[in-house]
Amino acid sequence: MTAQIIDGKALADELRQSFKARVETLTAKGHKPGLVVILVGEDPASQVYVKNKVNGCLAIGMHSEKIVYDREVDQQVVLDKIAELNADPAIHGILVQLPLPKHFDEEKVLEAISVEKDVDGFHAENVGALSQGAPRFIPCTPYGVMKMFEKGNVDLTGKEAVVIGRSNIVGKPMAMLLINAGATVTVCHSKTKDLNFHTKRADIVVAAVGKPKFVKGDMIRLGAVVIDVGINRLPDGKLCGDVDYADCLEVAGQITPVPGGVGPMTITMLLANTIEAAERKAGIR
Ligand code: NDP
To answer: How does DSSP assign 78-109, residue by residue?
Structure first.
């Protein structure tokens, strides 16, 4: 058996096409969706992500700009800029690219973003709304994964789902979304005693570990849905996921590739969140 591939790139392209009409409607009503991305420092991976986010917006007719600060910048300068953007009616989404340099209080910065413009969904109030099952903004990566389940016709109700990873940006919100969707969820992490015991009995495995090719074919059950959130750069420069794709391909029922899986969906859902924010502001949502 060879797994069916859930193509994130194709789904991302399809969704982005469908967003264009919504952006046009909003623009005609004087609410052109606008996203500002704040980057502190020169981390090469972050620079690529920020560029892709800004370009993703521009490609579908949205407004987007990046604001770049030197890594030594005082936190207050960034907080003042966020306050200014919170008050700017042309801006519907504000995103601070993580990680921030060590002298920053990440929580304080994220909490400074207006909950109405927190398109990453990392503000404590938005995290709370998600856990109550009434999200305002769903964090983009797990949101993208949920869309991929839809695309792959994966019925989550009553399924055993195992999420490997418990970060605030992927693992925890992923688990919350799966619970809300009716799955029975186990969250594994570095302190989990017998990871294979959990993954072997799962109908759905979501890998967000940050370790290349971590999930092997013998860790999953025949026919499982395997979602690979990982993005790892190998010494030869190639990208690879947290799942050993070749090894799992013959065991899984459905699988996502890297690249071309969850990655393109993350930015797509950022665009979706910003459009939703603009639609709320325009009173058409
Ligand atoms: P973090 O490093 O914040 O979290 C990794 C998680 O994996 C932690 O909870 C950690 O456990 C757990 N873990 C580490 N080692 C093991 C192990 N041996 N067994 C079980 N669990 C383990 O990473 P992120 O959540 O930020 O990202 C995860 C991956 O997803 C990365 O590859 C990242 O690049 C990628 N990513 C991809 C995105 C996309 O757009 N596709 C977006 C964001 C991230 P513990 O908590 O105990 O330390």
So the answer is: HHHHHHHHHT-TT--EEEEPSSPPTTS-HHHH
Give the DSSP per-residue string, 44-60. HHHHHHHHHHHHHHHHT
| Cα–Cα distance measured from residue 81 to residue 283, given in angstroms and rounded to the nearest whole number | 26
Q: ipTM of this predicted complex? A: 0.99
Residues flagged as binding site: 165-167, 231
Pocket of ligand 1 (CB under 6 A): 141, 164-167, 169-171, 188-192, 195, 208-211, 229-232, 242, 262-263, 266
| Residues whose CB is less than 8 angstroms from the CB of residue 198 and which lie 6 or more positions away in sequence, other chains included | 162, 186, 188, 192
Distance 167 CA to ligand 1 centre (A): 6
34-93 pLDDT tens trace = 999 999 998 999 999 999 999 999 999 999 999 999 999 999 999 999 999 999 999 999
Q: How far is the CA of 22 from the centre of ligand 1 (A)?
A: 34
Ligand 1 atom closest to the Cα of residue 261 is 41
Residue 108 appears among annotated catalytic residues: no
User: What would the pLDDT profile of 120-179 be if each residue is shown by its tens digit?
Assistant: 999 999 999 999 999 999 999 999 999 999 999 999 999 999 999 999 999 999 999 999
Q: Return the pLDDT at 285.
A: 83
